[in-house]
Specification:
Layout: H1 3-18, H2 26-29, E1 43-45, E2 49-52, H3 55-66, H4 71-85, E3 95-102, E4 107-113, H5 136-140, H6 151-162, H7 172-180, E5 182-183, H8 186-194, H9 196-199, H10 203-209, E6 221-222, H11 225-237, H12 240-243, H13 246-256, H14 267-271, E7 276-278, E8 281-285, E9 288-292, H15 299-310, H16 315-318, H17 323-343, H18 359-366, E10 391-392, E11 402-408, E12 414-420, E13 430-431, E14 434-435, E15 448-449, E16 452-454, E17 471-475, E18 478-484, H19 491-503, H20 509-514, E19 518-519, E20 525-528, H21 537-543, E21 547-550, E22 557-562, E23 565-570, E24 577-580
Parallel strand pairs: 10-16, 20-21
Antiparallel strand pairs: 1-23, 2-11, 2-24, 3-4, 3-12, 4-7, 5-6, 8-9, 9-17, 11-12, 13-14, 15-16, 17-18, 18-22, 19-20, 22-23
Helix pairs in contact: 3-4, 4-6, 4-7, 7-11, 15-17, 15-18, 15-19
Length: 581
């Protein structure tokens, strides 16, 4: 975006915040904004705010809030538009995890809409005739990777509990945009071009993304009448058609009748799908409570473990420019990831130790960090509740293609939702204008290793391990910060970095989001290419870390709630936007 349009955007945000302008869709304010060429800056508001991965989506949520809708109402409208404008990342064919603060009750809750494995699956789903794992993309593309979608039932469940506006009203922004069309963003155009061979495998998908046998290009007007029709049906009749009716039948037929790589999704799987209310996972850190999603998501526990380990060290004293800060963060993350891969899975199928956040366990384990060098070896610990477990580490591959929404409404309710169809464009199968997930590949391809069970092994009805980390930080039992990110297993590192940058180093939320990524999950220390993070290559290597420099793409969206009002930030690495009033 040139300086003129940057100035227009800044002025529009100011006038919207001040309440002097009627809300206008972002694309009508300045056409370039909708293509993603935005300058990300701190946005302030007094009453409500939405931060999402695309300006169209943020605008839809903003409009719902202006109409008096709740945070959940705005969440639904925002997610449906995201399905349309960034179909590679999320949608009704996938899953979602929600952490929600209800101001009336003063209670925090978490809601899990993760996909489930079809009832007919067997543990060897992704093993070849020799018992060896398939290659990742051989497993991903096609019906075999499709699990039972959960996000639509999640949204419907939350609306029944916390919605204020009519269900059908929340579908109108996405329906209108699907009918009239939207301008293809640079990111969507680039990803379609990069995935041309796989996206071209199925006629319906190919026809949408490659009209006239040419990939859609940045700035093209893209309409999706099939999705508009699907949304109109769901708006009129609720979620029945999706889980028991004509949409369900079309999904099952598409998955099971492929000539190559057919899948196992059934009408019974869809009919029997259930959203689960789970206890939030909270860890005290710097006089605040950092709360996230529990298993089968590893996000809440792994973020919490890492912060619990780091709470015994003075990161504020060392600061963001000291390599020893990143030594501590990197090795604490490695220790937490070791426990993650060993212990965490669907709690209905896998015994997850109750003591992963035990204070004495984390205090003892934090002593491993009391050194000036990188840890030579990192192994799972022995938290309370793990003594009788015999496990193998999870070798599952989780690639980044996800989105995150943060919203605070005018009544003080707050919601963080991370949603996904797993790999970019999911299974590459398109039904009624939306893509189906490939979340079966979030399971470990190997059910056992050296005779020991993998916690994240495939089983009928099971929910795969996830790294999605929707997070709400509480201060004095009130929401203080709402955040999350995309990025596969790196989501955990993205959220951690943002929390530490804000809570330890005092960075405003936009600066905390923009801070260059430095991530260590369980191997090489990854530094974000083209940023100041590259200055750490030699210091970290000298400490004993293996280091790689690479592009690291996140999608952080965060809101901080202060007595003076709301402050929001969107990740400059993608096309996100923040809107508030």
């Amino acid at each position: 975006m040139n300086r003129q349009f940057a100035g227009i955007l800044s002025g529009v945000v100011f006038w919207l915040q001040a309440g002097f302008l009627q809300a206008t869709p972002v694309a009508e304010i300045a056409p370039e904004i909708a293509t993603g060429n935005t300058v990300q800056e701190l946005v302030r508001a007094e009453r409500f705010m939405v931060a999402a991965a695309n300006p169209h989506a943020a605008s839809a949520g903003y409009e719902i809030l202006r109409q008096g809708g709740s945070a959940i109402d705005a969440l639904i409208a925002t997610q449906l538009v995201l399905n349309l404008v960034e179909p590679q990342s999320s949608g009704i064919g996938g899953s979602g995890l929600v952490v929600y603060f209800d101001d009336d009750s003063g209670k925090l809750s978490s809601w899990e809409g993760r996909e489930t494995a079809p009832g007919a699956v067997k543990p060897d789903l992704f093993l070849d005739q020799n018992g060896e794992p398939l290659s990742f993309y051989e497993a991903v593309v096609g019906g075999r990777s499709v699990a039972t979608p959960g996000v639509l039932k999640l949204l419907h469940t939350l609306h029944r509990k916390h919605g204020l506006l009519p269900w059908a009203t929340l579908f109108q922004p996405a329906i209108k945009l699907a009918q009239e069309g939207f301008r293809v963003s640079p990111r969507l155009a680039k990803m379609v071009a990069m995935d041309q061979e796989r996206l071209s495998r199925y006629p319906t998908t190919k026809a949408y993304f490659f009209p006239n046998n040419q990939p859609i290009r940045e700035g093209d007007l893209l309409k999706n009448p099939d999705f508009a029709e699907t949304l109109s049906l769901l708006a009129r009749r609720g979620i029945g058609p999706f889980y028991q009716g004509e949409i369900a039948r079309d999904m099952v037929t598409a998955v099971r009748t492929l000539s190559d790589r057919p899948g196992l999704l059934s009408m019974a799987d869809l009919k029997n799908y259930r959203v689960i209310a789970r206890e939030p996972v909270c860890q005290e850190y710097r006089q605040k409570q950092v709360c996230g999603m529990g298993p089968p998501s590893s996000g809440g526990l792994t973020v919490g473990q890492t912060l619990g380990l780091l709470s015994h060290y003075d990161l504020a004293g060392t600061g963001p420019d000291d390599p020893h800060s990143w030594r501590l963060i990197g090795d604490a993350s490695r220790l937490a990831f070791a426990d993650r891969g060993f212990y965490i899975g669907d709690p209905a199928y896998t015994a997850v130790p109750h003591g992963l956040l035990d204070e004495s366990y984390l205090r003892q384990r934090s002593k491993l960090l009391a050194t000036d060098k990188a840890l030579a070896e990192v192994a799972p610990g022995s938290p309370p509740g793990s003594q009788q477990l015999s496990r193998a580490a999870d070798p599952a591959l989780e690639l980044p293609a996800t989105t995150h929404i943060s919203i605070v409404d005018g009544q003080g309710n707050a919601v963080a939702m991370t949603s996904s169809i797993e790999n970019a464009f999911g299974s590459r199968m398109m039904v009624r204008g939306f893509l189906l997930n490939n979340s079966m590949t979030d399971f470990s391809f190997r059910p056992t290793i050296d005779g020991k069970t993998v916690a994240n092994a495939i089983a009928p009805g099971k929910r795969p391990l996830s790294s999605m980390s929707p997070t709400i930080v509480l201060q004095d039992d009130e929401p203080y910060m709402v955040l999350g990110s995309a990025g596969g297993p790196r989501i955990i590192g993205h959220v951690l970095k943002t929390l530490i940058a804000h809570l330890d180093w005092g960075m405003p939320v936009d600066k905390a989001i923009s801070l260059p990524h430095r991530i260590n999950m369980s191997g090489a220390y990854e530094l974000e290419a083209g940023t100041d993070a590259e200055k750490l290559v030699k210091p970290l290597e000298k400490m004993g870390f293996q280091v790689s420099v690479r592009e690291i793409n996140s999608s952080l969206h965060a809101i901080v709630i202060k007595p003076s009002g709301l402050e929001g930030g969107a990740d400059p690495r993608r096309e996100g936007a923040v809107m508030g009033e």
